[in-house]
C-alpha cells in the first residue's frame, strides 16, 4: 500500500490554496450542470452497462521542465512541513515554552529544540538508523525529549537566538521597506543568522569572513534586496517563490542555496511555515518521518 501511495504521490500535483479556491468557484458555477451530467451517465450505464477497455492507453500529459521542478520541490517541501506540524502538535500539547510567543514564534523555539535533539540524541548518522514510521512509540520518544529539553539550560537559545538573532532578522528583513533601506553588510549579518548559511564557513579558507566576502562580491545589493523582498513578501504562492530563488536565474543569489532559502522562509513568513534545513530533515527522520533529506 505504501509503495502504491508513493507511486501516486510522485505523479501528483500539489494544489495551492488559491488553486483550491478557483476549483471551488468553478464547481459552484457549474454545480447544476455537473449534477445533470452525472444523472445522464448513470442512466446510460443502467441502460447499456459499464464497459471499459483495458488495452486503451490514454497517455500522460507532458509537463514543462519548470513545472516538474516546482512539483517535485513542492512535494519534498510539503513532506517536511507536514511532519513538522505533527511535531508541533505534540510540543503544544505539553503546554510548556522556553520563551514567550511575544519574544519569538513557537516555530523558531521548536527549531532550537531540533538543534538540541541533533546535539543530544541524533548524533552523527544515528538518525538514519531509526525505523521509518510515525506511531505511538515515536510520539512517546518525542514527548520524552521535549520534557528533557525543557529541563535543560540552553543559554544560546535565550541569550543569542531570542535576544540577538531574532531581533536582528526582524529589524532587517521583517518588511519590504526594511529590506530596501538596509545596506548589503546589514543584510549579510542577518543572513548569517541562518544555520545553513553560517555552517558553510567550513568550505571557505578563512571561515565566516571569507564566506561573507564571497556573497558580497558575487551579489549586487539591488539583486539581494529584490530577491529577498520577492521571496518573503512577493505575490503568488510561497513555494513557487522559493523555487524561483533556487532555480530561476532572475531571482537566484550566488552562495545562497535551497537550504538557505527554506530556512530564511522559516524565520520570516506570513504562513507560519517552519525552518526547513538539513538539520530539520535529519531530526524529522530520527522520529520516523519519511522525508527527503536537504
* Distinct helical segment count: 15
- Say how many strands there are: 0
Averaged pLDDT, please?
A: 87
Q: Structural class of the secondary structure composition? A: mainly alpha
- Return residue spans where pLDDT drops below 50 for at least 5 consecutive residues: 53-60
Oligomer: single chain
First-residue to last-residue Cα separation:
26 Å
* Estimated radius of gyration: 23 Å
Major β-sheet, in short? none
In terms of DSSP E residues, the strand content is under 5%
The number of domains? 1
Helicity range of the residues?
Answer: 55-70%
What best-fitting shape do the alpha-carbon axes yield? globular
SSE order: HHHHHHHHHHHHHHH
Structure overview:
It is a single chain. The chain is mainly alpha-helical. The protein is built from 15 helices and no strands. α7 (155-173) packs antiparallel against α9 (184-191). The two termini are 26 Å apart.
Amino acid at each position: 500500500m505504501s509503495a502504491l501511495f508513493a507511486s501516486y504521490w510522485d505523479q501528483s500535483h500539489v494544489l495551492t490554496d488559491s488553486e483550491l479556491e478557483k476549483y471551488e468557484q468553478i464547481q459552484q458555477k457549474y454545480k447544476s450542470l455537473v449534477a445533470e451530467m452525472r444523472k445522464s451517465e448513470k442512466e446510460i450505464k443502467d441502460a447499456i452497462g459499464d464497459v471499459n477497455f483495458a488495452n486503451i492507453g490514454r497517455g500522460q500529459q507532458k509537463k514543462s521542465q519548470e513545472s516538474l521542478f516546482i512539483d517535485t520541490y513542492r512535494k519534498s517541501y510539503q513532506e517536511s512541513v507536514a511532519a513538522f506540524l505533527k511535531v508541533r502538535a505534540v510540543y503544544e500539547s505539553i503546554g510548556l515554552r522556553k520563551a514567550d510567543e511575544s519574544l519569538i514564534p513557537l516555530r523558531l523555539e521548536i527549531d532550537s529544540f531540533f538543534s538540541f535533539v541533533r546535539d543530544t540524541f541524533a548524533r552523527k548518522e544515528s538518525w538514519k538508523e531509526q525505523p521509518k514510521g510515525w506511531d505511538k512509540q515515536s510520539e512517546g520518544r518525542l514527548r520524552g525529549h521535549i520534557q528533557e529539553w525543557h529541563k535543560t539550560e540552553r543559554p544560546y537559545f535565550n541569550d543569542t537566538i531570542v535576544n540577538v538573532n531574532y531581533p536582528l532578522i526582524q529589524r532587517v528583513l521583517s518588511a519590504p521597506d526594511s529590506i530596501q533601506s538596509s545596506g548589503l553588510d546589514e543584510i549579510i549579518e542577518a543572513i548569517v543568522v541562518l544555520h545553513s548559511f553560517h555552517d558553510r564557513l567550513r568550505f571557505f579558507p578563512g571561515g565566516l569572513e571569507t564566506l561573507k566576502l564571497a556573497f558580497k562580491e558575487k551579489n549586487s545589493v539591488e539583486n539581494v534586496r529584490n530577491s529577498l523582498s520577492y521571496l518573503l513578501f512577493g505575490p503568488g504562492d510561497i513555494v513557487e517563490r522559493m523555487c524561483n530563488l533556487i532555480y530561476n536565474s532572475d531571482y537566484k543569489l550566488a552562495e545562497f542555496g535551497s537550504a538557505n532559502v527554506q530556512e530564511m522562509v522559516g524565520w520570516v513568513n506570513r504562513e507560519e511555515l517552519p525552518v526547513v534545513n538539513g538539520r530539520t530533515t535529519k531530526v524529522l527522520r530520527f522520529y520516523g518521518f519519511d522525508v527527503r533529506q536537504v
